[in-house]
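[PROTEIN RECORD]
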Amino acid sequence: MKKILVIQGGGRPRGNTAQLVESFARGARDAGHEVEIISLIKNEVKGCIGCNMCRYGKPCVQKDAFNSIVPKMTEADLLAFASPLYFWTITARLKAFIERFYCVARYDPAPPFGRYEKYPEKDCALLMTAADDFFWTFEAAVSYYRLAVVNYIGFRDMGTLLAGGCGDTNGAPQIDKTDHLEEAYLFGKNIYA
């Protein structure tokens, strides 16, 4: 059994992304994993202010939900980042959350691949929804995920689920008219198969 922490970076409470996350979590739970979902709409996390007060073992000085999430991240085997597509990338809430990883870094005298420090070893996944479904719809978001989370932080990528074509941004969620919820269920169920 693995511990999976899903960080939901925004969207409507019963919107496309929330439904995608629930299907993923149900699949992972059915496979025997423990899953917790944290919504960044309900748990405010501000962006890093670059003060360097948190370096190497000290908590962030900002008073928001991030420091209470750190122990959950520490215990988790996998962090799944979930976001609707906002202006061709992840939400500002999710980006702010990732920026705050600065305070979980540890000193490393010989960091690999040009990193400045060492981060905890974790698995990761990306779950995204979008109204559009062009060949390039998720290009910037996936690029950021790979550069920041996989290449720089060094988490091990367990895959991405990019759910495009989920309906007009002005209308009701339409992910249920696609195959994406079943894909998310199977992704969660087989992530450690």
In short: The chain has one domain: 3-190. DSSP finds five helices and seven strands in the chain. Strands lie at 3-8, 34-39, 78-84, 106-107, 117-118, 123-129, 156-163.
